[in-house]
Amino acid sequence: MPQKVEHTVHILEGKATLSLRKTSPHWQVRYKVDNKWLRTTTKEEDLERAKNKAVDLVTNAWFRQRNNLPTVSKRFKTIANLAIKRMENELSSDTGKATYHSYILALKNYHIPFFKAHNIDNVDAVALKRFAAWRETAMKRAPSKSTQNTHNAAINRVFDEAVLRNYITPTQRPHVENKGGAASERRPDIQIDEYPALLQAMRAYIQDARAGHERDMRLLLRDYVLILANTGIRQGTEIINLKWRDISLTKSKGREYLTMRIKGKTQKWRSIQVRHRVARYLERIKDRDTKLSKLSLRALLAKGLDKPVIDATHNADLTTAFGRMFSRMMAQADLLIDKHTGKKRTLYSLRHFYATHELTKGNVTAYQLAEHMGTSTGMLQSHYGHLDLLNLADKFAGEGSVAESVLNNHADND
Known about the structure:
Structural class: alpha+beta
Number of helices: 16
Shape: elongated
Largest sheet: 4 strands, antiparallel
Number of strands: 7
Order of helices and strands: EEEEHHHHHHHHEEEHHHHHHHH
Radius of gyration: 29 Å
């Protein structure tokens, strides 16, 4: 219990205490609610006015306690930062969702700047409507439904935190929903007839590199890009989390396939069979690692090493670094802008390239592709249940074999 200072005044029959701190001219009131001592400022320098203010503060807190209402109000910014901290902790412990990164950005870029001066219990439907109008002005466009969903999920994390800490009750929590919003637009991708130009651009990008770290990074970027373009997995979390132990050789119908276990953005695992040529890219990555180069790819996969395929040893944030490098390379090759959408291409465009290619070939259905890529086809999935993707391996792997791809590693066509 803190020591009493020289200027101490008891009120409400000793159930609350007014005191002055050396660092402030304002009287502070200390009182107990639910067997917890609370302290707040009266914002008054005059003792008599401070007494009246303190009585109001304390009796209001007791009233709220009797009626099961939160006794302490907090700023939205404070609760939002607590929610962000919780998501960051879950991400660091590998229990959080990949979408938490988007929630955190939404809170930092939009919700906190707008709601920072609001108390959490004052964020109601009217405040949310004002936020929606402000956001549209800040973004200079109507947010897509996808963006609204992300923002809604983000602010709901703040309300979750507030309820958990008893700063609001469940009945005080406002209902958050999408109101209109622009339809999600087509994202930039790479056309099949542009793929040869992409391969040429990557070779030129490597040739222009300085020896050492710059060349090593560009070589790794090429294989990173080609794995994304030939598997459909997500850039960032899915490929960065991929370890050698998650890759294996499996057999079906007398053929051998390269199989990857992918941890998706919902933290669920899926096993997929990928194009045979991916073995060539893995072989190149292996050969550049002095600790792995003496092993054959088959021997390496058999070992089941707990080591990332895309090693970030020399760059902690490879996703950001590769994103910037990819943009520079595409700009140099005059491939950065998608002529159909007018938007800049990103590494995520490779996922759309894969999906477009598979559907164009007509080898797989939309549902089969959704299972392979770890996405949803809505009602389709509820009607058809789970697919055995290994039985469709020949459709995803294409012609040739894993062995042929490794043997042809030095052809360097891609």
